Amino acid sequence: AQSVTQPDIHITVSEGASLELRCNYSYGATPYLFWYVQSPGQGLQLLLKYFSGDTLVQGIKGFEAEFKRSQSSFNLRKPSVHWSDAAEYFCAVAFLTGGYNKLIFGAGTRLAVHP
Amino acid sequence: GAVVSQHPSRVICKSGTSVKIECRSLDFQATTMFWYRQFPKKSLMLMATSNEGSKATYEQGVEKDKFLINHASLTLSTLTVTSAHPEDSSFYICSANERGGSSYNEQFFGPGTRLTVL
After folding, report:
1. How far apart are CA B115 and CA B118, in angstroms?
2. Are A105 and A39 contacting, i.e. CB atoms less than 8 angstroms apart?
3. In the sheet that B67-73 helps form, which strands lie side by side, from edge to edge?
4. Which of B7, B39, B43, B59 to mutate to test the interface with A (most CBs of A within 10 A)?
5. What is the dihedral of CA A73, A79, A80, A83, to 10 degrees?
6. Helix, strand, coil shares, percent, chain A, to 5
7. CA neighbor of B13 nearest in space, from B112, B80, B103, B94
8. If B71 and its partner were Cys, which of A7, A49, B77, B92 is the partner (CB 3.0–4.6 Å)?
9. 8 Å CB contact between B92 and B36
10. What is the pairing mode between strands A44-50 and B30-38?
11. Could you read off the pLDDT tens digit of each residue along chain B, which spans 118 residues?
12. In Å, what is the CA distance from A97 to each residue of A8, A34, B55, B104, B105?
């Protein structure tokens, strides 16, 4: 069965520090992978996605993620965190079923940023 | 482009009443719309998938008669929570796939609706 694991529930970093959020997935075929960000009381905004090709993908707001098939991982990184990056981050995998793509989300990682 | 709206953004109702939430794709036609439920500090749980003009497909454990979904057009889907109870209080988020769009695999999310049942 398809699943997504985000091992870290909460992460706190200092502003300006680097960030890595972990994501592991379980899916039999080539995955479509996504990272979303959610601010309190808001919907989801897509940060980046991986479908195929270059395993290092660049996203918005200075985020990047690297797909590692051997580790079934798709970790999100940012070299220097800003206070405005404090939010909830969700990793997701999409798979085709019934003619449409169904998203499975991880439990999320809540990021706090200290000044 | 690819904007999805939801209305209302927040609703409070009494137990036993029904509440309708609208999800609209504002600048594109959506082949498929999805409804998610998010509990506090939890992830999104897919409730159902709807295609225009056909019955919704519900995920296991989701009550069809409790959560009525209607996908009347390529730009509108509605979720009606019938005979709402306090345990139905949650954050409901919809998303939509763009019809014929290049980003076929991408779902565009609405801002969510906070439902509180007293």
Report:
1. 10
2. no
3. B4-7, B19-25, B76-81, B67-73
4. B43
5. -20
6. 10, 55, 35
7. B80
8. B77
9. yes
10. unpaired
11. 688 999 999 999 999 999 999 999 998 888 889 999 998 778 899 999 988 878 899 999 999 999 999 988 889 999 999 999 999 999 999 999 876 655 455 788 999 999 999 9
12. 29, 17, 16, 13, 12
Query: B25 CB near a chain A CB, below 8 Å?
Result: no
CA distances, B99 to each of A90, B9, B28 (Å): 25, 25, 7
Tokens 């390529």 belong to B74
Nearest to A100 among B41, B42, B49 (CB): B49
Collect all residues of chain A within an 8 Å Cβ-Cβ radius of residue B32: 100
Cβ pair B98, B74 in contact under 8 A: no
